[in-house]
Amino acid sequence: MAYQRILEEIHHEVSPLFGQGQVADYIEPLKQVDPQKFGMAIETLDGECYQLGDAEERFSIQSVSKVFNLALALAVSRVGNDLWKRVDMEPSGNPFNSLVQLEYENGIPRNPFINAGALLVIDVLLDHLTDINADMLAFVRELRCSDIHYDKTVANSEKLTGYNNAALVNFMKGQGNIFHGVDQVLDAYFHQCSIAMTCAGLARSMLFLANGGVVPGSGKRILTVSQTKQINAIMLTCGFYDESGKFAYRVGMPGKSGVGGGIVAVIPGKLSIAVWSPELNKNGNSVLGIKALELFTTKTGLSIF
Amino acid sequence: MAYQRILEEIHHEVSPLFGQGQVADYIEPLKQVDPQKFGMAIETLDGECYQLGDAEERFSIQSVSKVFNLALALAVSRVGNDLWKRVDMEPSGNPFNSLVQLEYENGIPRNPFINAGALLVIDVLLDHLTDINADMLAFVRELRCSDIHYDKTVANSEKLTGYNNAALVNFMKGQGNIFHGVDQVLDAYFHQCSIAMTCAGLARSMLFLANGGVVPGSGKRILTVSQTKQINAIMLTCGFYDESGKFAYRVGMPGKSGVGGGIVAVIPGKLSIAVWSPELNKNGNSVLGIKALELFTTKTGLSIF
Amino acid sequence: MAYQRILEEIHHEVSPLFGQGQVADYIEPLKQVDPQKFGMAIETLDGECYQLGDAEERFSIQSVSKVFNLALALAVSRVGNDLWKRVDMEPSGNPFNSLVQLEYENGIPRNPFINAGALLVIDVLLDHLTDINADMLAFVRELRCSDIHYDKTVANSEKLTGYNNAALVNFMKGQGNIFHGVDQVLDAYFHQCSIAMTCAGLARSMLFLANGGVVPGSGKRILTVSQTKQINAIMLTCGFYDESGKFAYRVGMPGKSGVGGGIVAVIPGKLSIAVWSPELNKNGNSVLGIKALELFTTKTGLSIF
Amino acid sequence: MAYQRILEEIHHEVSPLFGQGQVADYIEPLKQVDPQKFGMAIETLDGECYQLGDAEERFSIQSVSKVFNLALALAVSRVGNDLWKRVDMEPSGNPFNSLVQLEYENGIPRNPFINAGALLVIDVLLDHLTDINADMLAFVRELRCSDIHYDKTVANSEKLTGYNNAALVNFMKGQGNIFHGVDQVLDAYFHQCSIAMTCAGLARSMLFLANGGVVPGSGKRILTVSQTKQINAIMLTCGFYDESGKFAYRVGMPGKSGVGGGIVAVIPGKLSIAVWSPELNKNGNSVLGIKALELFTTKTGLSIF
């Protein structure tokens, strides 16, 4: 399969969609991103890499970092498995965002990929890590991606406008489901949101999820086969907010999106793929990114279904 | 009408209810209150005072302070009337407390007597007052009640466990409906909750609401006739959380309760009455307090209906 | 107090509001009503009557009939008081209408004045009455109003479009809270909605609610003093859908509105008043009707607060 | 892979779970089913069949029929694709069942596998089919399963207690999203729920979903490759009510369950598998059935992830 040519076809076919979405504008640093940016990268288990466009340019991965967050939590908390007592793994199905659901369900977030869930996972990580911000970078570097850093401007902006996230942590703490300090949890969260990576780096670092939990190249086992399948399952059912069902229907790959316009997805046993295009649809997912991945599965015939 | 004798009859008739409710236990200082405490006080526009039991003992008035909060806001914000753009005046009808409703209604609290609404009113007050905590005490003293102070132990306990209130303020700030600092708003709120007064003081200080907004004795006008009726209307429709309808049905007086076990109510043109009994029903209202007021209206035939 | 002159002043002052609302359009017969209609009628306990405009013209009273429905249920079910086990008396506080609340609260309607609650009250009435439609007319005639009939065109139109009400009855029956046949309950409900009366008739028939439950003139006791106060309390807290709080705040009278543009209200111990003006605000209450009643209480100084 | 032996191991390992669930009891015919029943059947694309226990005994497939319902709708409505304008494909995420969500989303069901969604799909089918009940049986027979019939006792019981489903259809019709008669839609729905099949028949008839839409053996194409993937995606994200996420996490196969205790699932490109065990967990899914499928994927290493 000539992936490079497929990437070029996809680029050609999605280009007419520029202008149909809106760049995230709740913080200044995201607002200023050039909406015309477009990058794609593929990494295969055969060791091949394919890139297109702005694949080597760093962008704010935002909620894509929730995959690293969950993976790290599963990796470090192997002994006690209390994570799943404190966060559920069901799709949220709630277009109104999550305070409503949190309240109805007594402070148990629906899954680790909604904000409340990611904040809860951070609280679990704080039990195990002494320097969560440093450990997170170290973890991603172990996934063979060194081109990663926290964008302090983004982290600060998130903090200044992060009242909704503060509401979530405070509410969960009021319900007894957050054990560490509110500010400590929020600080780590805003740092994760500010992680800057490239499409190439994202595809490379997520490849272990297509490889049963083992980092290709280094051979280092990060997660058990079972844990790896579980993350893929959660990406499929919960990876795209209230558009997860449609992404499964149209694309058929486990994946995760972020409001920076990035999406990463995997075909277990085959490859990982990352796209970046900043314009978002009303659900907060990249317009061109989703279309690009749909075209990818159509053209290659790859799909988990 | 021999009010003193009626008070004694009421005391006799409600006594069998001791033990049917639970003292508030979310903070230590409330938990330690003797559940057997019972006080009543009546102040009439004729200048008469009647008391029974622990009517001169101070207790934590908690949410009863929301009436002072709203009255002060109406008093100081006479010019701009933007209060009602930022908080509604409808019953909340929500047994799940208010984060759900706040989210569905984009950060506009349903009324000034739910927590979110009181926090919002404080934010309005902060526009007008330089020392809100001192000004609040001064305001109540103007209502002819000098036996009032903040109970610092209560205020600190509220603060230590006040995550749900922090969630409310943060959420509203995220929605753009809180203009001052989160901590500043919360501090004033926890102070208000910690106000300690006696039944006698409560009845006296609320008498202006039965008198068209004018403090009997001093003759000082606090609110216009119209504003006074409005507070009474809001007390009637929203004064007892999710039991407001039943209180109107059973008692038929505008009033407000607090989880300290206090209730204050008025018969416009006639009198004000305060009860204190710490045991609460599942809605957070005083078991004996509500029954006492029901008996009061039955025995006297007084009712706004 | 020169009520006639006050009515004329009110008429003059509300006239500029014509055109600000929308006539109900979900069924043809309501859609065709002349939006310029305006009538008012007052009946006092002194035996005086005042009228203005179209006060003698019949219109579709719609949900105002829910007051008769509840009053009749209280009148006939004096023995068993199981009504309040099957319907609550709290404001609904739900702008989304009532299926949501019904489901969260297991088929117990919030109060007798929302659709679900009125349907439930009918189910209770069906236990006691052999011909509910005839008995309802007889009941209102006993209230000294003979100018009343069912408008079959309206009843049929309601039936043809009444799927939401059918959903409510079916849901409550599924929850075990409706004992009679779905169609039987709906038929009586659609009949009640179709009752046509005049402002004069409405004011006259509701006067017993200002008179402690006794029909002035005939002296017949319909309800106990206590039951009468309870209906007034429920009208005050629940009579205007999600605008009940604002009506209490602005007007300060127990009352009930209907989407036909009619409103009836009472000042206990004094009078009853009815207004009709078909243009509705977004909450389904008459724009001119509410303003007229607000002016009435302002001009007369009458208010329960 | 020695499937027969694996089936036997599974049977052995799940047996201790008997007694942990509850047989469905909302209708008499389900209540009377022997809770000890247990059957499994596998059909592979290689043409092999494996069975265990009560695999040849017919049971009420209940909501498993929603897969046939959706497949038939996609098969007959190839031209106009308005189905997805009237029903969404997102997980419902709503533990309260679906009236709440239906109301918030204006009568658009979340997906075709919740009751509201299946009723909507039937309404679409009624546009295309002249005898929906007969056509449905014919459709399943085309899938090489002849051992199928409607259990009239079940259908009648469903009808007698089906008030919640009647509420759903009425509500959607009130919202303009149901075009056919309420009773007509319900009748077809209750018939589908009453379909009786065997594990062997279920596995055989669903095998086309593992085969890109083509019935193995006959070679008849029922759906396009793309439509087939889409049904699998919807089964994965929505097939197990509010346990869909956990099923994906634990089992990793697209599937669908019913309150009769049946579950069917597929591994695309490989096989289909059916289990029957009547005891249900609190989410309405078969306790032993889910465990059996989890063991199956663990023992075989098969999973879409």
How would you characterize the overall build of this protein?
4 copies of one chain form a homotetramer. Chain A is built from 14 helices and 10 strands. In chain A, the strands form 3 sheets. Chain A has a 5-stranded antiparallel beta sheet, with helices on both faces. A 3-stranded antiparallel beta sheet of chain A has the order 4-6-5. Chain A has a two-stranded antiparallel sheet with strand order 1-10. Chain A has helices at 3-14, 28-31, 65-76, 83-86, 99-104, 115-128, 132-142, 152-161, 163-174, 182-193, 199-206, 225-238, 244-250, 287-300, and strands spanning 22-23, 39-44, 49-53, 59-60, 149-150, 195-197, 255-257, 262-267, 271-276, 279-280. The two termini of chain A are 19 Å apart. Chain A has one domain: Beta-lactamase, CATH 3.40.710. Chain A binds chain D through residues 88-96, 101, 104-105, 110-111, 226, 228-230, 232-234, 236-238, 242-246, 248-249, 252, 254, 268, 303-305, and chain D through 88-96, 101, 104-105, 110-111, 228-230, 232-234, 236-238, 242-246, 248-249, 252, 254, 268, 298, 303-305.
What descriptors fit this protein?
10 strands, 305 residues, alpha+beta, Beta-lactamase, 5-stranded antiparallel β-sheet, homotetramer, 14 helices
Largest interface: A-D, 37 and 37 residues
Q: Supply the number of structural domains of chain A.
A: 1
SS element count, helices of chain A? 14
User: Which CATH first-tier class of chain A would you pick?
Assistant: Alpha Beta
Considering DSSP H and I runs of 4 or more, what fraction of the residues of chain A is helical?
40-55%
**Total number of beta strands of chain A:** 10
| Alpha-beta classification of chain A | alpha+beta
The name of the CATH topology of chain A is Beta-lactamase
Oligomer: homotetramer
Shape of chain A: globular
Largest sheet of chain A: 5 strands, antiparallel
Low-confidence stretches of chain A: none
